[in-house]
Specification:
Elements: H1 2-7, H2 9-21, H3 30-64, H4 71-90, H5 98-117, H6 132-136
Length: 145
């Protein structure tokens, strides 16, 4: 079975789905199935992290460049909030990990914000300046701060 997994992934998935449907445990490729199931969970975590990176980049830009704020940034923030909330609704067990995922996402977000704004790293807080509620729910400030 491992050979099929390595040679034709799609055929392997169909074969495993058929074996699961028939409850034929002796035909299951346990090692690769375990790896794939774990990968599916990591994929959901990664999707949340990706949405949070984009969201954090725009929140940092919003904060650091008030003169450049525009509808596009605001809509991106709103869209990424909705997408992050969708992932959390579909995967509620990710909520307890939200602070950790945010911290991981922030490291990448700073790099992207530097690139997109052309501001130095020192223009952005070293540690994440937002709590998860502020990231996902807070109204955007309309003043210069």
């Amino acid at each position: 079975m491992t050979k099929l997994y390595e040679q034709d992934y799609f055929a392997w998935t169909q074969d495993q789905a058929d074996a699961l449907r028939r409850r034929s445990i002796n035909e299951l490729d346990w090692e690769n199935l375990l790896e794939e199931v774990e990968g599916l969970g990591n994929q959901q975590r990664g999707e949340l992290r990706s949405h949070l990176i984009i969201l954090l980049v725009h929140l940092l830009k919003w904060r650091a460049q008030p003169a450049r704020r525009g509808r596009s940034w605001e809509l991106t923030i709103r869209e990424q909030r909705k997408e992050a909330e969708r992932v959390l609704r579909q995967n509620p067990s990710l909520r307890p990990e939200l602070e950790t995922i945010l911290a991981e996402a922030y490291e990448t977000a700073i790099l992207r914000a530097e690139r997109e704004t052309r501001l130095p790293a020192s223009a952005f807080p070293e540690a994440i300046p937002f709590g998860w509620r502020e990231v996902l729910e807070a109204d955007l400030p309309r003043d210069d701060g």
